[in-house]
Specification:
Layout: H1 2-26, H2 36-50, H3 54-57, H4 61-68, H5 78-89, E1 94-103, E2 108-115, H6 120-124, H7 128-144, E3 161-165, E4 169-174, H8 182-195, E5 201-205, H9 214-221, E6 229-236, E7 249-253, E8 264-269, H10 276-284, E9 290-294, E10 305-309, E11 313-317, E12 320-323, E13 339-340, H11 345-350, H12 354-365
Parallel strand pairs: 4-5, 5-8, 8-9, 9-13
Antiparallel strand pairs: 1-2, 1-11, 3-4, 6-7, 6-12, 10-11
Length: about 375
């Protein structure tokens, strides 16, 4: 009991500290007549000192400063300033790069921009209703193969894992990797492993996975590992210059069970499988029993570093370069599938998901198609 009480006190103290820091940075009174140039300079400098992928993006950041500095004046409204900053950040095509305006009481976003690249998937499925209809189509396709109808939240719990199965294949869907602890995820995955004992294969659907915490994805990937796996080498950006990095820090994913799943694993991806979703795919992509079907992942690895700016603004960037153990950097290009298939609107009309069809085919053929590229 004393342990739990101390934990609660520490949690409250941390929350109060963060709240006071936010209030200090924001100020208790705001006006539209703030110092836009100071904000612009702070944002430019934070990115200049910490962003990890200037070389990959081919951005001359000093030229950007000279181009956008004359556009900043005290006459700009907050909305106009946001538009100007967004125009400067858009060139990154990086969903980890962004800026937002926040207010307290209650703490909330009032404006925000993330420099996401254009997406084939979001062009084709351009609103939430169409995306929902696509996953309903995936569900009905699974039912056609003898799966139980998919219900949100494994075991009727509110969590990130949706699970269903047929007589010999399991299906896991994850739309994100946040709002759940690594411990809870590990427990759920062990339960799923028990339900899939002796199965031919498992389909892991991370299409339109919005990312979250890599440690959560590690618990899911760990269900399919029989030994600790070296996933990546992570290099932290140093302030010295754009190409200055720390020594590599190896990143490992560990098994969560003494009896991992050893059947065929099929991972479904698209160009909105992002961040922790990218990391998850990287953890399993080179296993001999894994086949990736779909489109390239978005290619924004690691996590966003969030920092404060003056006058109630915050920024986000990725300050890590993440390479595979053999030196490949999938930032900006994404992890390629073994079998290339893109969902189309016509899939909904035909009530068939071709990625599910191909996944079932791969599993029943019990063949390793990991050498396929298209």
């Amino acid at each position: 009991m004393q342990h739990k009480t101390r934990a609660k006190i520490n949690m409250k103290r941390n929350i109060i500290t963060v709240f006071l820091l936010i209030c200090f940075k924001i100020g208790f009174s705001q006006s539209d007549n703030y110092k836009q140039m100071r904000l612009f300079n702070k944002l430019w400098k934070k990115i200049d000192n910490h962003y990890a992928s200037f070389e990959i993006k081919g951005i001359n950041w000093q030229d950007s400063y000279e181009l956008f500095k004359p556009k900043i004046s005290k006459e700009l409204t907050q909305e106009q300033l946001m538009d100007t900053l967004a125009l400067m950040l858009k060139q990154f095509n990086d969903g980890h790069v962004g800026v937002a305006k926040i207010k307290p009481f209650p703490l909330r976003f009032t404006m925000g921009f993330a420099a996401e690249r254009e997406s084939y998937f979001y062009k084709e499925f351009y609103n939430d209703s169409l995306i929902q209809a696509l996953f309903q189509t995936a569900n009905s396709t699974l039912v056609g193969y003898g799966f139980d109808s998919l219900q949100p939240g494994y075991n009727n719990n509110k969590n990130i894992l949706d699970f269903t199965k047929s007589t010999d294949i399991g299906y896991i869907h994850m739309s994100h990797m946040e709002g759940i602890s690594a411990r809870k995820t590990r427990i759920l995955m062990k339960q799923i492993l028990q339900e899939c004992t002796g199965f031919k294969g498992i389909i892991i659907d991370v299409r339109d996975n919005k990312g979250g915490l890599p440690k959560v994805g590690d618990q899911i990937a760990g269900a399919f590992l029989d030994e600790k796996k070296h996933v990546s080498n992570d290099y932290k950006r140093k302030r010295k210059n754009h190409n200055s990095f720390s020594k590599p820090k190896p990143y490992y994913c560990k098994p969560i069970s003494k009896n991992p799943f050893i059947g065929t694993i099929v991972i479904l991806t698209n160009d909105r499988t992002r961040s922790a979703g990218d990391n998850f795919v990287m953890s399993l992509m080179d296993l001999p029993n894994v086949t990736i079907i779909g489109d390239r992942t978005e290619g924004i690895l690691g996590e966003a570093k969030i920092g404060f700016l003056p006058y109630g603004w915050i920024y986000g960037i990725n300050n890590y370069k993440i390479l595979t153990p053999d030196g490949i950097n999938y930032e900006d290009i994404g992890i390629p599938p073994d079998i290339f298939i893109q969902n189309k609107l016509s899939d909904i009309e035909q009530n068939k998901d071709p990625l599910i069809d191909k996944a079932i085919e791969v599993i029943y053929n019990q063949q390793n198609t990991s050498h396929y590229t298209q």
